Amino acid sequence: MQIDKSQILEFLRSQGDNDKAAQADSQLPDQVDTDQHSGLLSQLGINPADLLGKLPGGLGDKLGGLGL
């Protein structure tokens, strides 16, 4: 799934992880593919499934709890 880097940065900052947000800003492309970039996300302590459920706009709710 494609996620805009700005959403990931906002998520990290909302969790108080400003250092990880700065790291993500320098390492991630503008459009993050959760499959292709899973290694980078993992290094940042981000579980793509958790991220999708917590993104602004309720993306996790729209997926209907598919466990993605």
Fold topology:
Blueprint: E1 2-4, H1 5-14, H2 18-27, E2 31-33, H3 38-43, H4 48-54, H5 59-62
Antiparallel strand pairs: 1-2
Protein described:
The protein has 68 residues and is mainly α. It is 54% helix and 9% strand. It is built from five helices and two strands, in the order E-H-H-E-H-H-H. It has helices at 5-14, 18-27, 38-43, 48-54, 59-62; strands spanning 2-4, 31-33. Strands 1-2 form a two-stranded antiparallel sheet. The chain is globular and about 25 Å long. Residues 58-68 have low confidence and may be disordered.
Relevant terms:
68 residues; mainly alpha; two-stranded antiparallel ribbon; 54% helix; 9% strand; globular; disordered C terminus
Order of helices and strands: EHHEHHH
First-to-last CA distance: 9 Å
Largest sheet: 2 strands, antiparallel
Which sequence of strands runs across the widest sheet? Answer: 1-2
Tell me, briefly, the overall form: globular
Give the uncertain stretches in residue-range form: 58-68
The portion of residues assigned to helices is 40-55%
Rg, alpha carbons: 11 Å
Question: How many extended strands?
Answer: 2
Q: In terms of structural class, how would the helical and strand content be classed?
A: mainly alpha
* Count of individual helical segments: 5
- Please, what is the average pLDDT? 82
Strand content: 5-15%
Compose a concise summary of this entry:
Helices cover about 55% and strands about 10% of the residues. The protein contains five helices and two strands; from the N terminus they run βααβααα.
